[in-house]
Amino acid sequence: MMKTELISINKIQALKIIEIVNNYYRVECREDTRKREIVFPRQVAMYFIHKYGNLSLTKIGDLFKRDHASVLHSLKAISDVITSPESVRKEQKLNLKELKSDCYKTQEIRLKDFELFGLRIDISNIIQEMNEQELNKVKEVLLGIEIAV
Fold first, then answer.
1. Whose CA, among 5, 16, 74, 115, lies 20 to 30 Å from 60?
2. What is the pTM of this model?
3. Is the pLDDT of residue 121 over 90?
C-alpha cells in the first residue's frame, strides 16, 4: 500500500512540473505530435521530472505516451543544450534557467504530500481502533450535528 502512495506522490510532482512547463511555453507538451514547438517543451518536462522527481524512465515515458528510449533521447537533447557554448542556443538556455527554480520547488510539494500521507495513516490507525460510540462522537464534533444511536 505505501509503495503505491509514494508513486502517486511522485506522479503529482511530475504533473506539477508538466503544468509549469506548459504554462511557460503556452503549449500542451503531452500532445502526441512531432511539431518542434511541442517537442522541445516535452523534452524539457522530461528532463526536469528526471532531475527533480523520483520516477523511473519508464514511468516518465508513460506520462507522455513514450517509451524509456524516448525519455533517454530527451535527457540527452536537453543536456546538449545545457552544455553547448553560450552563443549557441542562447534563448533555449535562458528558458531552462528560468524554469529550473520553479521545477526545483516541486520537491517541496512532494515533501508536504509525504507528510500529509503520514498524517492520513496516523488518523486511519486511530479511527480503526475506535468503537462505534467514539466514532459517533467524532462525527458530531466534526459535522456539528447530533447523531442518534
1. 115
2. 0.68
3. no
